[in-house]
Automatic annotation (TrEMBL), chain A:
The chain crosses the membrane at residues 297-317, 329-347, 421-438, 450-467. It comes from Fulvimonas soli. Residues 57-94 are annotated as: Disordered. Residues 64-73 have a biased composition (Gly residues). Keywords: Membrane, Transmembrane, Transmembrane helix. Coiled coil: none annotated. This is J domain-containing protein.
């Protein structure tokens, strides 16, 4: 049934007839007496109105009714009105005949939208939001509602396209004037935030606004330092320079992050993304990146060489060439071991994070994740059997224990956060821990106590399994569903 | 018997839908407009209306005005020995109005329809209802002021099949509504407004300019002097509507004030205020999806709309001169009376049906994923768009942000900003969900239902389990709960109020005291008159008092020609 038929009207009914039918039904279905019935009636009425207005035969009768823009404020959001394409006669709206002679409205000349946008952007670049607001308010063309809507849309589109330098206050003034700063204006608030950040940063980076930028970047001492820093970031890409600067990456990364408010992608095009990415990667301790490996390798090499060189120098001062060689070798070995430790530490961090991921996050290699600790314990037993009393046989269970405890702690249900529970568990851990840490060295090497060491990781692992038992069941269930 | 009340920022009126259409009741002084001012006199009696307004000049600490602007807030005002919430002050005004109506009707009045600005928020509407309860009347309905004005206008002009805009600039609030009338249906298409824009702001601008023009710091004048100056400026503001230039001449304490202002300068001063009116007008037109030429009429109501500047602004925006067949001060009250008649199911209003809109957007807080896929919280997600026809009911679906989330907190907000931080929080509903399900299977359907009386109901249904949760937002934090209302009602009952028969004497004395402050040269004379009138009051001889009152009033009129 078409909406018009619902009202008992023919397909060629006009708006007047529809309104009469609606009014009659409305008297029986008053909004305060029958809310549900009224809502249905009103929705139907809106649809019937739209149908009426779409009907070309009746178009002249309702020519004034918004060019088929649908019914008056109703089910469709008001935003739809703002987003609808402008009418073909984009100039100021027609004047009623009676008023045509009076000079209340500017003459209906075609408005130069592009020129207006350029002017507005130029004014906004000066940074004075109040002046911009006054300038907009003083423009007589914008007393026309339609033109104002159109101009606002054109200006915002242009801002998205060009992202000219503009302080946030000016963007706000523009949005406010064109009434685009509300939730139903149809803009993605995230995109708008991004645009605002981007334009604000571009504006701040202009040489004229260094002092303001400096004031924001506390504790940046002077404009000169800031200039130097920015020059470094802006300089053309050269590996030698990039690497030289990355020796202490934390400082440069912090500068980039405070400058861009944590969004380095907002930097204008002239900054080389490769270099900035490299520095940020080198400073990022949470991931293993090429930049980090490269910088670590370079530092390690430098430290080892320096150590060796130092050894040589000392030995040369002692005038004992044979000793010199050994010392150089020794210091070099220390450097090498340090590097190995660093590598192991770097590898351990992602392992720890992966292993401590919550149960419901899609983990890579879920079974390995679940059984890593027992596997490591098995490995420990194996190593101990092959190489009894070796350091390796001790390292493996310690790593396993540490991983298991961390996992248990990190994955603990967030409602009953850890501390209390850890204290409840602690008494049971004291004995095995004490055995591991303070046990008689002979006992350990004796081998018969090795399983006792393994109780620590297994205990922590079992504890975690107990806490997560609910999720274990689910995993199998969802797996079944997937099948 | 349901009465219609216009509870305004500066003036209030009361009336009823009588046999011959809407009829307004005068107060004891014979005026239809009762100033919305509350004061206390020296022996602790509460004064309402003109007496309190005069008291504001002579004893600024003992009277308070414009409290409508604080409705919905916790602000308390000290008057005499106790403090009052804005609801209580409004309740005192309502009581005075109801007493006038009861005197005119000769019966008890227990129910009322009260008008509120269309753009009043949820909290402000609830505070207005609470004020009604505190005044001992049941508020049958709150009607939006521009809608009320439209009812009055519609009944008077019977425009059929027309669209029109009501521009309501009152003492403290500004409202715009776009309406359509056909076949007895009054359909509101859109409302917009500014709750802090009205005649008082124009007066503030004038006062600031006057002080600056005289080279005085804002705090150079003490409170009574400021009250006097404002009164003079108010007169000057009204005079500026018809005269090219106005001169303000008076003595404030030791200072002789002589200041001039012409229309052009006034227009320049209030330009920012006029600019602020543009946004609501444009918004209402956009939301109604109408072009100016599609409007048949523009109706101006509210006392402040008398300023020619306002009419000029409207002509400029709409390309035509506004229409003003309705009485700007009374239109809203008359409309409230019509609404009361409709509520009482008056036979002659049977044909009329009113549909109104919800003037603001209602929604919840959501998190959105940014370009890196990280969830960012604090965004406002509209569910009921502003200017939806009420009653309305909308549904939307939400999912948990993270896997393993044990619940969803639906924070209910009212406002227009895309960021919830700038909107008004109405309440929250916690919906537990199964943390073991992946987020995409954990949908929660949320339904917002907004009824004719402005009560919002939030319903949430978890799709996986079918479990329902509900939240009815009837009372906001910071507003009075029923128990508190009972307590306050008891406290208000203890207040001493002059009997209605004495009101005229009280008002006359208050006026004389104000004149005593304002007219230095006639102080001795006034003192004598006051003493003589008080002596006449002591005799309690009604005839003698009436005689004296007439003489006293005439004498005061010589000092202050009406």
């Amino acid at each position: 049934m078409s909406p018009l038929e619902w009202f008992g009207l023919g397909g060629d009914a006009d708006e007047r007839a529809l309104k009469r039918a609606y009014a009659q039904r409305l008297r029986r279905t008053r909004p305060e007496d029958d809310p549900e019935g009224f809502q249905q009636l009103h929705a139907m009425y809106q649809r019937a109105l739209a149908q009426c207005r779409r009907n070309p035969a009746l178009a002249p009768a309702s020519a004034g009714d918004g060019g088929g823009n649908g019914g008056p404020a109703g089910d469709a959001p008001p935003a739809a009105a703002a987003a609808a394409p402008p009418r073909a006669d984009g100039a100021a709206p027609r004047m009623p005949a009676a008023m045509a002679g009076t000079d209340l409205r500017p003459p209906a000349v075609r408005f130069d939208l592009d020129g207006f946008c350029t002017q507005a952007i130029d004014r906004a670049a000066s940074g004075d939001a109040d002046a911009l607001g006054r300038w907009l308010q003083a423009r007589p063309e914008f007393w026309s509602l339609q033109l104002k809507t159109e101009a606002g849309r054109a200006l915002v589109q242009r801002l998205y396209r060009e992202r000219p330098p503009m302080p946030a206050a000016c963007l706000d003034a523009i949005l406010r004037f064109f009434d685009l700063h509300h939730a139903t204006a149809g803009h993605d608030p995230l995109a708008l935030q991004r645009l605002e950040r981007h334009m604000q940063l571009a504006w701040e980076l202009q040489p004229a606004h260094r002092a303001a930028l400096c004031a924001r970047l506390r504790p940046m001492p002077t404009v000169r330092t800031l200039d130097r820093q920015l020059a470094l970031l802006e300089a053309p890409f050269r590996w030698s320079r990039v690497i030289a600067l990355a020796v202490f990456p934390a400082r440069i990364a912090m500068f980039v992050n405070t400058l861009t408010r944590g969004h380095p992608e907002d930097l204008p095009e002239r900054f080389d993304r490769r270099a900035i990415r490299f520095w940020l990667d080198a400073a990022d301790r949470t991931r293993i990146t090429r930049a980090r490996l490269l910088m670590g390798g370079i530092r390690w090499l430098a430290a080892t060489l320096l150590g060796a060189l130092l050894g040589c120098a000392i030995a040369w001062l002692d005038a004992d060439p044979a000793e010199a060689g050994r010392l150089a070798l020794g210091l070099g070995a220390v450097g090498f071991t340090m590097g190995l430790c660093w590598l192991a530490w770097m590898a351990y961090q992602p392992l720890d994070r992966w292993h401590g991921l919550p149960e419901h996050v899609a983990v890579r290699w879920p079974w390995l994740n679940l059984l890593l600790v027992p596997l490591l314990c098995g490995l420990g037993l194996g190593v101990n059997a092959l190489l009894p009393h070796s350091v390796l046989a001790l390292v493996v269970p310690v790593v396993a224990a540490w991983l298991a405890i961390r996992r248990c702690w990190r994955r603990f249900p967030s409602q009953r956060r850890p501390h209390a529970a850890i204290f409840r568990v602690a008494p049971f851990l004291i004995y095995p821990l004490a055995r591991v840490l303070f046990v008689d060295a002979d006992d350990v090497r004796g081998g018969f106590a090795y399983w006792q060491i393994l109780t620590v990781p297994m205990l922590a692992w079992g504890l975690d399994l107990w806490f997560q038992r609910a999720h274990l069941r689910v995993r199998s269930r969802t797996a079944a569903q997937a099948d | 018997m349901i009465v219609g009340i216009d509870l305004g920022t500066t003036h209030s009126l009361i009336g009823i839908y009588a046999d011959d259409g809407p009829r307004l009741f005068p107060n004891p002084l014979g005026d239809l407009l009762t100033p919305s001012v509350v004061g206390v006199d020296d022996d602790g009696h509460v004064l309402v209306g003109q007496a309190a307004r005069d008291r504001m000049v002579s004893h600024p600490q003992q009277a308070v005005a414009a409290f409508k602007r604080w409705m919905g807030t916790d602000r308390e005002t000290r008057l005499g020995r106790r403090t009052f919430r804005p609801e209580e002050l409004s309740a005192l005004v309502l009581r005075a109005l109801v007493a006038d109506a009861e005197a005119a009707l000769g019966g008890r009045v227990a129910e009322a329809v009260i008008s509120v600005p269309a753009y009043f928020s949820d909290a402000q509407r609830k505070a207005t209802r609470a004020a009604g309860e505190l005044a001992g009347i049941r508020v049958e309905r709150l009607i939006n002021e521009p809608t009320a004005a439209a009812l009055a206008y519609g009944l008077q002009e019977r425009p059929d099949g027309s669209r029109f805009l009501v521009f309501d600039l009152g003492g403290g609030t500004f409202d715009v509504s776009v309406l359509e009338m056909f076949e007895g249906v009054v359909e509101v298409h859109a409302s917009a407004g500014d709750n802090f824009l009205g005649g008082e702001d124009f007066l503030d601008a004038l006062e600031a300019a006057c002080l600056a023009g005289l080279g005085l710091a804002p705090d150079a004048l003490d409170a009574p002097q400021r009250g006097q100056l404002r009164r003079r400026l108010e007169t000057a503001k009204r005079a500026l509507s018809s005269e090219e230039e106005v001169r303000v001449e008076c003595r404030l304490g030791e200072r002789a004030i002589d200041w001039r202002i012409d229309q052009q300068r006034f227009a320049h001063l209030v330009e920012p205020l006029l600019q602020r009116m543009r946004a609501p007008l444009e918004r209402a037109m956009r939301d109604a999806r109408l072009q100016p030429e599609q409007l048949d009429e523009i109706v101006l109501v509210g006392g402040a709309s008398r300023m020619p500047l306002v009419a000029r602004l409207v002509s400029r925006m709409f390309g035509r001169l506004p229409l003003r067949h309705v009485h700007p001060d009374q239109a809203i009250a008359l409309g409230a009376c019509v609404a009361a008649g409709m509520k009482a199911r008056d036979r002659r209003l049977e044909e009329m049906v009113l549909t109104d809109v919800c003037p603001y957007t209602l929604g919840t807080e959501v998190a959105r994923r940014d370009e890196q896929g990280r969830p960012q919280s604090g965004f406002f997600h509209p569910i009921i768009q502003r200017n939806s026809v009420v009653p309305t009911s909308r549904e939307d679906t939400f999912w948990p942000v993270q896997p393993g989330q044990s619940g969803i907190v639906l924070q209910v907000y009212q406002g227009e900003s895309p960021l919830v931080a700038n909107n008004i929080k109405l309440g929250e509903l916690k919906v537990p969900v199964d943390p073991r399900l992946p987020p995409e299977q954990n949908a929660v359907d949320v339904r917002f239902t907004y009824d004719v009386n402005g009560v919002l109901q939030v319903e949430a249904a978890v799709r996986a389990t079918g479990k329902r949760h509900e939240l009815v937002l009837e009372r906001n934090p910071g507003l009075l709960d029923p128990r508190q209302i009972r307590e306050r009602l008891a406290a208000l009952a203890e207040l001493k109020v002059h009997p209605r028969a004495k009101q005229e004497n009280v008002a006359l004395l208050a006026r004389a005291e104000r004149l005593y402050e304002e007219h230095l040269h006639a102080r001795e004379q006034l003192q004598q008159w006051i003493a003589r009138f008080r002596a006449a009051l002591e005799t309690q001889d009604e005839l003698l008092i009436r005689e004296h009152r007439r003489e006293f009033g005439a004498a005061l009129d010589t000092l202050e020609p009406a």
